[in-house]
Amino acid sequence: MQQVADDHRTAWRTSTDYSFLTMTFQIIDTEPGCEARRGVLETAHGVVATPAFMPCASRAVVRACTCEQLAAVGLQMLICNAYHLLLRPGPEVIAAAGGLHQFMGWQGPLATDSGGYQVFSLSQRAQITEQGVQFRSEVDGSEIFLAPEDAVRLQNQLGADLIMCLDECTPYPCEHEYARASMEMTLRWARRCRQAHHDDSQALFGIVQGSVYHDLRARSARETVAIGFDGYAIGGLSVGESRREMFEALETSLQYLPLDKPRYAMGVGTPLDIIECVQRGVDIFDCVLPTRNARHGSVLTWGGSIKINNARYRDDFRPLEADCKCPACTHHTRAYLHHLFRINEATAWTLLSLHNLHFYARLMERIRQAIGSGELQKLQRELHTWTQRDEQ
Amino acid sequence: MQQVADDHRTAWRTSTDYSFLTMTFQIIDTEPGCEARRGVLETAHGVVATPAFMPCASRAVVRACTCEQLAAVGLQMLICNAYHLLLRPGPEVIAAAGGLHQFMGWQGPLATDSGGYQVFSLSQRAQITEQGVQFRSEVDGSEIFLAPEDAVRLQNQLGADLIMCLDECTPYPCEHEYARASMEMTLRWARRCRQAHHDDSQALFGIVQGSVYHDLRARSARETVAIGFDGYAIGGLSVGESRREMFEALETSLQYLPLDKPRYAMGVGTPLDIIECVQRGVDIFDCVLPTRNARHGSVLTWGGSIKINNARYRDDFRPLEADCKCPACTHHTRAYLHHLFRINEATAWTLLSLHNLHFYARLMERIRQAIGSGELQKLQRELHTWTQRDEQ
Question: N or C, where is chain A less crowded by C-beta within 10 Å?
Fold first, then answer.
């Protein structure tokens, strides 16, 4: 299958204007004994090797990092948040800039989440009705109404390569009755989003919901697929349920999704979560963990995670990780990063974020290399052991 | 004179270990009609073209910037602060790292200030006696005593290429009697510093004080030169006096300094201050302005300074400055930087700091190019007009 993908890439690479291109997805290898697949996602702004991890650039910036730095540590695609960008700077500003890529200076592939999750989690006074969501802006207090059609139109204005339907992300725990009604509304919203979307250069993803209930996950997946999308997101994960519940809900959801479309596990997760989702057939991930943890001084290394604030690093003149090619490890020691973190210096957030993101980029690269070689299970065991090794 | 400097550089460049080198200073051109000189300062960690500007890396970091980014925008030498580093991380940590260059990952030339200024300005309960300064640590409340000999020993441990005597920086306004007594003590401290300094790889600078009084400035300069230093700093400037008072105090100080040693105007200043000091014969500058102003959203351009927070930049899709090669202007628009600044994002501080520092690097480059060509006065007039043009 390698040949197919390569030919295809060659084809669009010969075109100087490929902004007309719809996203395509090719599976180029699979791993025996599990559902893992290695693929190539092609967007109007370039190629993404899957499984892929997207750092969160919710407000059109990965906090404390420049786009130049992000590209240099091996990141392929970022995800922004339409809700945050609706409030600030506003879609009219981004549209006037020529779209989100131009606005933020990131020329590679971009995704946007619809912002449904933020409407529910951040807005104290969100009212959800069949029509859509009414909420109060946290910036200027104004009342904003967001229908599913508005969420699509907003994301059309932003112009990301992958965009999401408006959904309701149910909390955990959640009664079966609420989860059912919510999932059914998310389905009706998905139909409205599908109908409202006319821009072929953007891939629209449907979102599977249904909390931890197998019957609801199965219905949600089947009916979302019946509507027909360019890819499928699995939402409502990593919201407080146990890992076992998460993987069961994920497995049920994936069972009904077409093999030839990319699958995106929203908000997942830790390195171990990611590889275990990959083994079940997930292609795309996003999570705030590597950057948020970095800003709190929690650093990922292949020897386990470390807390840079710990006094033991005051005179530890090794890099965070031997042989790591990130800017923090290339130029600096643990002792220096400890010092920067202790004086509450923004450069610490920058360097630790870039290190953790580079760790995730390497993690995904190792996962992709393992797929097809029969080595994925071994890597999963390594990450399982690694998880036990975190510094207390 | 160009030949002399070039031969000298070739000589040390052929040596693989030049850590034994004392700083040397060669004047390679002068400007007719004023005292300006273009020179080459050679240190154990590389060459600095003068006149040069040093950004403040007081706590071993230029706030919100990485060393890699600083080198990329054209900075030659940084200045750290021995007082801040004494408190955190402590000189024993930096010595164990192999010195300040190794500790912070900056391989180019470095200077340290003794920290006398900070002892007086930051420490509520500093007591100055003939023996030295007693103050309370702002980190852990402990009592610390710093004699002139301690300040030298501390800077020897840090290992910067240029180090400063301990001095008292008098406030403004300051009675003649206080300024005289203080200046005389600074002279006695300078003798003690000179005696305590035995590391030939570090250039020790004496500091001229004397507030705004010509008699005191003249005595301070003459007697500091009589002690004999590798270079001379002019302290007590930019502390609240008028520009006229500053330049008169500076002129008197410079009049008694040897032509063949580098002169450093501490804490100066704005672009116009800098070029007017250069015209009077100053070689080295440091100032927090470009970085502090950047963090407050004040941006330098050759068309005048702008406040990025201003609503007019919300949809201004031009770079901060056309043709600027800094990372902010290469990749981003005013609208994006406005957005980042409005959401209080550290990446805004990074990008605006790098832009302002690159502006200063270009300013110094333009000044150096003008020296010897008879064009310096024209550049001074341009900067004078430019100063009037700041956005209100």
Answer: C
SS3 assignment, position A350: helix
Cα separation, A249 vs A172, whole angstroms: 13
Beta strand segments in B114-221, E: 127-128, 133-136, 143-146, 162-164, 203-208
- Cβ–Cβ below 8 Å for B350 and A346: yes
**CA-based R_g, chain A, Å:** 21
Strands (E), A8-121: 24-30, 37-43, 46-50, 52-55, 78-81, 110-113
Chain B residue nearest residue A313, CA to CA: B93
Cβ–Cβ below 8 Å for B60 and A314: no
Closest by Cβ to A315, choosing from B66, B68, B93: B93
Q: Is B286 a catalytic residue?
A: yes
Indicate which residue of B260, B283, B286, B323 is catalytic. B286
Q: Are A57 and A78 in contact (CB under 8 A)?
A: yes
List the catalytic residue out of A29, A113, A273, A315: A113
Q: Count chain A–chain B contacts defined by CB atoms under 8 A.
A: 120
Do A88 and B343 touch, CB atoms closer than 8 A? yes
CATH of domain B2-287: 3.20.20.105
Residues of B in contact with A137 (CB under 8 A): none
Residue B297 pLDDT > 50: yes
ipTM (interface predicted TM): 0.94
Residue among A63, A317, A350 whose CB faces B97 most closely: A317
pTM: 0.94
DSSP class of residue B56?
B
Q: Which residues in chain A are contacts of B343 at CB distance < 8 A?
A: 59, 61, 88
**Domain chopping of chain B, boundaries:** 2-287, 298-392
Lowest mean pLDDT among A40-44, A202-206, B19-23: B19-23
Q: Cα–Cα distance between A133 and A151 in angstroms, integer?
A: 10
Calpha distance B1→B38 (Å, rounded): 11
What does DSSP say about strands A24-30 and A37-43: parallel, antiparallel, or unpaired? antiparallel
pLDDT, tens digit (0-9, with 9 covering 90-100), for A320-365: 999 999 999 999 999 999 999 999 999 999 999 999 999 999 999 9
